DNA sequence: TCGAACCATCACATTGATGTGAAGGTCAAG
DNA sequence: CTTGACCTTCACATCAATGTGATGGTTCGA
């Protein structure tokens, strides 16, 4: 598929697909005429990249961890230098921290929403109650 | 405490503490001489802000969700407009997505590391084995 | 009273992820 | 053969978060 289709299917501006390639995150084939040529797997790959970018990882780091995430990981045994291992361990820990932070704050938001919404429900119930009482002739003043 | 101490205790440049204030994320008291004056609670607050920034949330959003995260949330019932509720629900969902993405990729990294490291252990064991065999006089060509 | 170590504001620079548009090549359809 | 919808590269603009430095006020101890 060409860049336009990949762009549509991933909701990613062409500009950024070229940018990700420039940053070494993806490597597209080229048609004889110079057009970029992507296969199906790029769809998930782009989505993964965008998710990680959105989660705060810079392209530099994404570039490093992406190769380790392919299914047949047999190939990558030899090129696992000690520095690479250290980087991966560090990023893994950083991601765990991020996850903890996001979970804490998301749960706090969820709890807040739960409180506010249940409060709304109670108020709505009270309003129904009051209107029922009013239609029965009573009023509280 | 003044800005220097808060900076040290949170590992955050003074420049950024002022920036966060400018963005409305925090509101510091002022001493008579104009110096910013922070109390203990700012330490956690700054750490929370930095965590969220690191997790990809922009200051604009952090500013919106922070007030909902304070412990005595009784005050915030009235100012919970429908738009605010919608924003919070949206951000909660976005955070859940981010969490999912981070968890998936972190686990993949962890699994990769596990594989590589266990491979290393096996190789080390094999090396020990070989050296023991060599010291016993045998060799495999 | 002087200097060091704080603090203040202001302003300009940088970096990474993006937006946008120009200038031009390719290709299928009319 | 031209038009339109793709594609290419290149370049400059923007935005948010951050770095850095200038200029000057406050406080405190020698």
From TrEMBL, chains A, B:
Matching Gene3D superfamilies: 1.10.1660.10
Domain HTH merR-type: 1-68
A molecular-function term among this protein's GO annotations: DNA-binding transcription factor activity
Protein name: MerR family transcriptional regulator
Superkingdom of origin: Bacteria
Any one Pfam family match given in the protein's UniProt record, by short name: MerR_1
Record's keyword terms, sorted: DNA-binding
InterPro entries recorded: DNA-bd_dom_put_sf (IPR009061), MerR-type_HTH_dom (IPR000551), MerR_fam (IPR047057)
